[in-house]
Amino acid sequence: MSTTVTVAPREIHDLVYRASSVAGCDAGMAERIADNVTFAEIHHGAAVRAFCAALETETLGASAWATAPDVLAAAELAARSVGIASVTFEPPVPLAAIAGTLQQSLERGVTHIGADAGARGDRAVSTIDMRLADEPAAAARQALIDDARADAFRNGIAVEQAWFSKLEAAAADYLVAESILDEIDAGTGVA
Amino acid sequence: MSENLLQAELSARRSRLRPPQVVMQPTMMGAARLTRYSFSRTLLRRAARDGWKAQRVRFDIDEQGHGEAVYQVDAGGWLLSFIAFTTTIDETEHTDRVIADRWEVTGALVDGEPTGGFLSLLRREIPRQESGRFDARVLVLTRGNRSVRFFDYLVNALAAGTQPDPAQVADAGYILRSTAFYANGKYGMRSFEGFPSGHPLRVPYRAQMLCAWMFRELGYDLVEHCARAANPSAAVRFDAEWSRYFGLGNATGLGLVPFAFKHPRVLHAWVAVREMALADVRSLRGTPDRLALLGAWIERAHLHFVNGTDDDCRPFLNAVEVAAAVERIRDAFESCRSDPLPFDALYRWAEGCDPETTELVVSLLTELHDADDDLVDEVLAVSEHGSLDPAVTVRQMRAMLSERFAWLDELDLDDTSAEAWWWVISDNTEEPRRTRRDQLDPSHRDVAIDVALRLWRLRATLDGYDDATPIHSVLDDHPTHRLAAERLHASDRTYGEPRDNACSERYLPLMLQRFQLATYGMDNFKPKSTDWLRVTLFGGAPRLADYGTAETAERPHGGRRNDPDAHDNWVLPTRPGSNGHPKTIGNRVRCG
Questions:
Q1: pLDDT per residue over B230-242, tens digit each?
Q2: Helical H runs in B471-584?
Q3: Same-domain status, B516 and B478
Q4: How many independent structural domains does chain B possess?
């Protein structure tokens, strides 16, 4: 069994944001990736692992991590217009790349089939069907989401130490050396 | 829920509120002062009202002041502990900057009692600060140093059996100076949202304030302990005048600025609470009680400032200059007394003065207010949840831009000077800073608080689209506008946006820093550059013993325990030994 470290949700969010930024994503895109990974780690697990694996193999800004949520947004609009819409990802995308976006759609009244609540964040998703939500079912799902979220914020989330360390390393390039900043300040008269 | 409540309260006062084009101007934010609703005040009122019991439970400190101390608060059944590790370091290692790696005091506010394995973890990790690893039992992490100028002087004075000479300590105002209060999930600590319903710390910054209050207590205890150790037969404790005077010093840098730009709904709530109080007070008629109360506060402010120093505090006023402003306020108040709405008349007079005078009047007027503290706590607990609906049309986006960001036109955002700076996080303790774009390329490392620039550019891009186009399509074409579009959606509150460009050549961080520090309850603003300043927190405030248990009856200051009124009129303390004493300020008249 792998060693885990308990982390706060914001730690995942901050680190994924930073790692996405230095991987070339604009702030808005990095923010959305961080939202998705954090949501997926809380509710599905294995999201940090999936994200770090992607960093090692993909150009993040051109990958499904950046583009799949836009595809879902278009499908959501279609579902709201005609009642149902379907999305196929080829190649499949990790659930961690879209989990938070799917939740946002649910909050706007559009539910989905193809990404089970019990699935892990690193599960590959190839098809998502979206349709207008049945209100009681959506409310029940929301209650589960709220409970898991509250628990994550109260007690933290257990993440595999090895993957969290990789995430920290990937995010480290976002930081600028203090000595460089001091040197610039000295040269420009900033105290 | 709390947003609805806040919006309802604001709506009820809509015509009487100051507009954001006044309140959110940098110069006005940079003149803010603590109010009755600053977080240090609301903490201590809550503690008194709910009968919190506070005490020192362990003090294993040697004669040099090295060791370990634990303070506890029983906050209505929730046990919270402040554990501190103390040492001394060479004077040359003292720095106000957050990036230091050694401190004379390191500490943490924790949930429950630190014992057993948990205590071992705290002993190992707290002194490591940002390098340490914590868990959800740890609520706030802090550190600081002794005042180089005054700590030893105070020890020597008490050891000699005397009280400090007011002329020697000038307007020092503190014994220990903190440099950071980390919380909300950093380094594995408890997330703010992790405080369950009903928890006494489920109010923004209450955990940090509680930690700071006990940190200040440690300063007093260290001085008195070291004095006793130096001269057991002759040493005395601080007398009643001095035993509340000192606060906790704090050195504050650029770390505050990104928070204010990133959380528009939080900022709105902070400002709205103050503005509602001001609106209520301006509507009051001038009964003798109310007029006397404001008069007493003006006198108290004068005594506080007139005994301060004339240090260079630019761009702010120093204490002597503020005292002169108070004298003008006093004169103006005398001419407003017979007005049917004298407090409104005083405010209208102040509006024509400089921002420091205006906001000082606001601060004084809010002392007449008495809102339900439960309501204030509730409206400060803001939800930031919510995302942009991809179906929102360009027409709707334009309307939002026009309603919420018309002020961008005033900032000259097409000029190259508009992006002279970018915001960065340094590799040393992750301190937020700013650096010049012409000296260092951001290369995707910028902290995205360039709100004004992003919204300005989004506005230009929208010009190329039909009204009916969904924003989703615009963002497909221009993904770099995503953050701006989300911000436009989230910026749905009156007082959410500082009307400034954080990347401008002319941007002055001190303005926003002062607003935030005043909201926390800090005072005595002493800028040390354009980017950082020193302040004091809890100067004049009650001590732990004022909230003690029956068993800890040792109370040097008199007065009743756990009486909110007795525990609230402590701000603007007069320096011991000064001529004159503030009048006793009576209970307020409910008007919130």
A1: 999 999 999 999 9
A2: 471-477, 482-490, 509-520
A3: no
A4: 3
